[in-house]
Design a protein that fits this description.
The complex is a heterodimer of chains A (about 120) and B (about 350). Chain A is built from four helices and nine strands, in the order E-E-E-H-E-E-E-E-E-H-H-E-H. By secondary structure, chain A is an alpha+beta fold. Chain B is built from eight helices and 20 strands. In chain B, the strands form four sheets. Chain B has a six-stranded mixed β-sheet with strand order 11-12-13-10-4-14. A six-stranded antiparallel β-barrel of chain B has the order 15-18-17-16-19-20. Chain B has a five-stranded antiparallel β-sheet with strand order 6-7-8-5-9. In chain B, strand 19 and strand 20 form a beta hairpin. Chain B starts with a strand and ends in a 9-residue tail after the last strand. Classes of the chains: A alpha+beta (about 120), B alpha+beta (about 350).
């Protein structure tokens, strides 16, 4: 399992990176492996507003659909439209294949890489 | 607590993802569902289907019992043949769907769904009459399915091709593979050419490993229940609990070929007669907009619900997102623009003919 040290994580298997005052959100290597082949990503619209803990988008694997929960209360500033035509990028490069960039503030508890790995092992 | 098939340890060694299914803990995938699906369409795949239930029915009244318990007609069936049939309840709903193997005169092997096995055994036992012996032999038998165009190539490494059943829905008994006595039928649940092997449970690991090893040079790989489900969906084969259940009659879900209303009497016949012409029918739906349609989603036409989906996901070989659906009969024809409600989103779709996929001759 790949868990980059520079990222923060939610217990629900999203990763967050702060970049130029925005929060970049994706799903972890553990999550993509658990989901299996990802075949569709449903993204929000720019300017959509969310509270921390809301489903900001969903990912569909062959077997099931899963929500991606945002730890940020705020507004969507950018969406990764490349995922619409190439959802498999989430499997191939989970930390490169971000879903959304949001502005606002983190309102959920985040874990560092070590704590997140422990959390996955306990699951 | 889920049961394990005799191949459980082999799946774990192969790194399979194990999930509960039908009372068993089964491999859902070894690598990925799409890759396993494509292997079956293009080469072949190996499936552990030992969770399936097997019962034997023997005796002078065996045929009469089958004709009463099941909707298909077993009169005049020849030994060495396999026949599919729904088994109905008194109201014409489906208890299960199953395969009947005729071993010899007055002797049959019946193969049922794992998740329904206990219910089936109870149902059959409570309706038996005359001189018959009925035994649940599920624990004694393991089953491996070899499915895909290279299936016969693989098996012919162990047994002469002439000893394999050469026609669909026929079988050969006592086919020996490295000393293991197998019943081999040309059947399957993938829409592909292939075989199902039934053999003593204790021989499971040996036979599985032989086939896995021998398959490597052909690109034949172990496949999990995930691919089994997408393959059967792509081939538009109904699955109990989805396209049929104890309320849906086999006529409503398009299994007319296996319901012989002309038979004198069978369980469910009167109820189906009273219901008359089915008011719903099974059809395909494909997404023309964006999204994945799955089971239990409402199918809408101009704001009115006209039915619901019963199974759906992406179809790896055909491509795109498709579902089977049960629609009001007047709408169950191809080419109709509809929408499917995907968690609150109306996704543009179109009805299409079944099957989604037919194998090349």
């Amino acid at each position: 399992m790949n868990t980059p040290a520079e990222l923060k994580y939610t217990k629900d298997h999203e990763w967050v990176k702060e970049e130029d005052g925005l929060f970049v959100i994706g799903i972890t290597d553990y999550a993509q492996d658990a989901l299996g082949d990802i075949v569709f990503v449903n993204l929000p619209e720019i300017d959509d507003e969310f509270d921390g803990g809301d489903a900001v988008c969903d990912v569909e694997s062959v077997k099931a659909v899963s929500d991606v929960l945002t730890p940020v209360t705020g507004k969507v500033v950018e969406i990764n439209e490349d995922l619409l035509d190439a959802p498999e990028m989430v499997n191939e490069d989970p930390y490169g294949a971000w879903f959304v960039k949001m502005e606002g503030e983190i309102t959920e508890d985040l874990l560092d890489a070590a704590a997140y790995e422990t959390h996955c092992k306990d699951n | 607590m889920e049961k394990k098939t005799v191949l459980y340890d082999e799946h774990v060694k192969l790194g399979a993802k194990m999930v509960p299914f039908g009372g068993f803990i089964m491999p859902v995938q070894y690598t990925n569902i799409i890759g396993e699906h494509m292997a079956v369409r293009e080469k072949a795949g190996l499936f552990d289907v030992s969770h399936m239930g097997e019962v034997s029915l023997e005796g002078p009244d065996a045929e009469a019992n089958l004709n009463y318990l099941l909707t298909n007609d077993f009169t005049g069936m020849k030994a060495g043949k396999v026949r599919y049939s729904p088994m109905c309840n008194d109201s014409g709903g489906v208890v299960d769907d199953l395969l009947v193997y005729k071993m010899e005169e007055n002797s049959y092997l019946i193969v049922v769904n794992a998740s329904n096995k206990d219910k089936d055994v109870e149902w059959m036992q409570s309706h038996l009459f005359g001189e018959v012996t009925f035994r649940d032999i599920s624990d004694d038998i393991a089953q491996i399915a070899v499915q895909g165009p290279l299936s016969a190539e693989l098996l012919s490494k162990f047994v002469e091709k002439e000893k394999l059943p050469d026609q669909y829905y026929t079988f050969r008994d006592a086919v020996f593979i490295e000393g293991i006595c197998c019943l081999v039928s040309q059947t399957g649940y993938t829409g592909e050419y292939g075989f199902e092997l039934y053999f003593p449970a204790a021989d499971g690991p040996k036979l599985w490993n032989l086939l896995v090893e021998a398959g490597k040079e052909y690109g034949i790989i172990p496949c999990g229940l995930g691919a089994r489900d997408t393959l059967r969906l792509e081939a538009s084969m109904p699955l109990y609990g989805h396209e049929m259940n104890d309320e849906i009659t086999p006529l409503e879900t398009g299994l007319n070929f296996a319901v012989k209303m002309g038979k004198k009497d069978f369980i469910g016949k009167r109820a189906m007669e009273e219901k008359g012409e089915p008011k719903i029918a099974r059809i395909g739906i494909k997404v023309t907009g964006r999204g994945i349609i799955r089971e239990h989603m409402d199918v809408m036409l101009n704001g009115k619900q006209i039915g619901h989906t019963t199974s759906g996901t992406i179809l790896p070989f055909v491509g795109g997102s498709h579902a089977m659906a049960l629609l009001e009969k007047e709408y169950a024809k191809p080419g109709l623009a509809v929408t499917v409600n995907v968690r609150g989103r109306e996704v543009p779709c179109e009805t299409e003919a079944l099957p989604f996929y037919t194998k090349k001759k």
